[in-house]
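1st attempt posting a full record on here, be nice pls
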Amino acid sequence: MGGNELPLQRIEPVSVSGRGLPRWLRRTSGPVALVLLWHILSVTGVLPSEVLAGPSTVLSSAATLIETGELQEAMWVSLSRALTGLAIGGSIGVTLAVIAGLFRLGEDLVDATMQMMRTVPNVALIPLLIIWFGIGEAPKIALIALGTAFPLYLNVYAGIRNVDQSLIEVGRTLGLSRLAMIVNVVLPGALPSALVGLRYSLGIAWLALVFGEQINATAGIGYLMANAREFFQTDVIVVCLVVYALLGLGVDFTVRTLEKVFLSWRPAFNGT
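the predicted structure (as tokens):
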């Protein structure tokens, strides 16, 4: 070999080459700037404590609630309600979506009813839920289940019906049975839409939880908020709102992780 060889260099795609600040730093800059602005407005008196407590007061209240164990207990109760309602509503939504998506008869029997019911505001059903289930845990979980069933139904149904027809033809050419076609082609093809529906359902679960915990709650984040409202404790209210946000962020992160695990076979655009 000649002596004019160029040294070998590793070539990286532009999409993965590092540019500028790390991504985690860019993602946290917005929330940090917002908290900093909130602190400045509080210490300068532009934002009175009667209107909204400052970050230092909120942190102090959070530490007190953690020390007494009230916050952990409330988080566990609220998380249990949300996940139980999601499990019930999600199971119903996915089951009906599979029936309507796979079979024309199922679509005729299920889809029109689901499309009609999803337009009814869930909050408007609270009086009926109280009459049917009382004022215990059942109406709270039922409200969450109703809210989470429809996003999963719509997305799973759309995912099944939008499976590439060429994949179906390939399956038929390979001689796959109807069951094998559903298990190996249709359901994996509908999985991306199902995970999107799950993310929507989780977001709605937290919204429904806020309303549900106003129904004679004796525990949970909503109960803490209701008590704080009675005594104009804006610091405790902010603590509860932050907890709601962090719980929602946590479960959303879980779903995003599931997407990376189960959809690793699918190339996707990650932004520029």
